[in-house]
Specification:
It is a single chain. By secondary structure, the chain is α+β, with helices and mostly antiparallel strands. The chain folds into 2 domains: 60 residues, Orthogonal Bundle (Arc Repressor Mutant, subunit A); 80 residues, Glutaredoxin (3-Layer(aba) Sandwich), CATH 3.40.30. The chain has 7 helices and 5 strands; from the N terminus they run ααααβααββββα. α2 crosses α3. It is elongated and about 50 Å long.
Length: 163
């Protein structure tokens, strides 16, 4: 399946680039715009963004692979990101990740074969006082325990929204 950026999005990127003294400064907003349209940033799409902003393709790749909010690959319908920093780890986030991996038969960073779930870890969600914390499709869930996670998994498997 061939993916391409919509012409109106390409025009929006060109307009965005004029707002900055250097086109490079428009890279992250442009990538977010394209990711919101397509869902991910595969190599061909990164190359097109590089062309649009007159940047070297490796520079775009560096940015995509550095920032965790940018994704090279499509994610599942339910994206679960568990905080792995100290406060959350001390309150059980590693156990939650391990149980998710076992339950869903994936490793952190992978998507289930049915496309329903992507499990990942993130650095600090700034929720140390309510650890462990995680994001589910970008929404905070705090004081997480396995019962909460099981409820989220069950809802998604029934076709419902996770939260």
């Amino acid at each position: 399946m061939s993916m391409s950026i919509k012409p109106e999005t390409e025009k929006a990127i060109a307009a965005l680039a004029t707002r900055y003294p250097q086109k490079r400064a428009a890279l992250i907003p442009a990538l977010i715009m394209v990711q919101n349209e397509i869902g991910s940033l595969p190599d061909a799409i990164q190359a097109r963004v590089a062309q649009l902003l007159d940047l070297p393709a490796p520079q775009v790749k560096e940015v995509v692979t550095f920032y965790p909010m940018l994704r090279e690959h499509a994610i599942g319908k339910c994206h679960i990101e568990v905080c792995r920093t100290l406060s959350c780890a001390m309150r059980g986030s590693r156990t939650i990740v391990k149980k998710l991996e076992d339950e869903l038969h994936v490793h952190a960073g992978e998507t289930t074969k049915d496309g329903l779930f992507t499990v990942g870890t993130v650095e600090c969600l700034a929720s140390c006082g309510s650890a462990p914390a995680m994001l589910v499709n970008g929404n905070y869930v705090e004081n997480v325990d396995w019962k909460i996670v099981e409820g989220i998994l069950a809802k998604v498997r029934k076709g419902e929204k996770p939260l």
